[in-house]
UniProtKB/TrEMBL annotation:
Pfam family, one: Fn1_2
Domain Abnormal cell migration protein 18-like fibronectin type I: 54-117, 124-188, 197-260
Signal is among the record's keywords: yes
Signal peptide: 1-16
UniProt keyword Signal, yes or no: yes
Organism of origin: Pristionchus entomophagus
Entry keywords, A to Z: Signal
Name of the protein this chain belongs to: Abnormal cell migration protein 18-like fibronectin type I domain-containing protein
Length: 291
């Protein structure tokens, strides 16, 4: 469990009945009668009692001045009263009264509240050398993080050069000429990117929807910032769609893609049949791709 609370009143764990006629005192755990099997019998001499031991249920008897541990508490027996002197964590770490102890992402508290002692343990998050409580939010680079019960969770992305602007995972926002994206790439993983609105090629910026030609290849800028290859353009301005072959005045114009590269190829052909020209092409037809 994330947190644990144990409460123990600092009250005597004894009950005794004087048997004057036989000169003895019977001590039993608190709430138990004198016939309880784990009782302790003390003799009375000249009407004076010795220092009383502490008798605890399921913890046995402990002499006056003796220390012992039960559950998450360390006790000292003080004349019949078991007094808490420290708290004990599950890994046997000792936490002094009123102190807080942090180890392996767990905070341990040993609080004194009046006549009672409270032991608490609570998970924490450890990030960049700092411990955070569950529910705390903090910044790490471009990301807003929150300490949760199951660890650190990404709550969003901080806008670049802004102190308070935050994007939720999966959200994007255009600020000026830039698109800020807080992209959710996988469960528990977020990527923050800043892109110019439009498309960039060879350090030139093109608007969304803009069509332009570069080195015989005609492109159109897409909304997501990518360039869509529309086709090829020869020296005279004739357009050939991507994946098409055109025979004009004895010249074959070819626009094709191999893997992710688009090629424009032109060659002379004596035949007036395009299929014959293609069959004799130095670029085999089966290698053309428009994907």
């Amino acid at each position: 469990p994330m947190s644990r609370l144990l409460l123990l009143a600092l009250l005597p764990f004894i009950s005794g009945e004087s048997e004057n006629e036989i000169g003895e005192v019977v001590l039993t755990p608190q709430g138990m009668g004198k016939d309880f099997t784990e009782r302790v019998v003390l003799p009375v001499s000249n009407g004076r009692l010795p220092a009383l031991p502490c008798v605890l249920l399921n913890a046995g008897a402990h002499e006056h001045g003796q220390t012992f541990t039960k559950g998450n508490f360390h006790y000292m027996c003080n004349n019949g009263t078991a007094e808490v002197v420290a708290c004990i964590a599950e890994d046997s770490s000792v936490i002094q009264l009123g102190r807080t102890f942090v180890r392996n992402g767990i905070r341990h508290k040993c609080n004194v509240n009046g006549d009672s002692v409270t032991y608490e343990q609570e998970s924490m998050c450890f990030e960049n050398g700092i411990h955070y409580n569950v529910g705390d939010s903090f910044r790490n680079g471009s990301f807003k993080l929150t300490c949760g019960k199951d660890g650190v969770a990404i709550e969003g992305c901080y806008l670049q050069n802004e102190a308070t602007g935050i994007l939720a995972p999966g959200e994007s926002r255009i600020v000026g000429k830039y698109r800020h994206e807080c992209e959710k790439v996988a469960e528990g993983k977020v990527r923050y990117t800043v892109k110019v609105v439009g498309c960039v090629k060879d350090d030139r910026v093109f608007n969304v929807g803009q069509v332009f030609t570069d080195k015989h290849i005609r492109y159109q800028c897409q909304l997501d910032g990518t360039l869509n290859v529309m086709g090829c353009v020869d020296e005279g301005g004739m357009f050939i769609e991507l994946g098409r072959d055109v025979l004009v005045n004895g010249m074959v114009h070819r626009c094709y893609k191999i893997d992710r590269t688009t090629f424009f190829h032109k060659f002379a052909c004596d035949s007036d049949r395009l299929d014959v020209c293609i069959a004799n092409s130095i670029v085999p037809r089966f290698r053309r791709s428009v994907s």
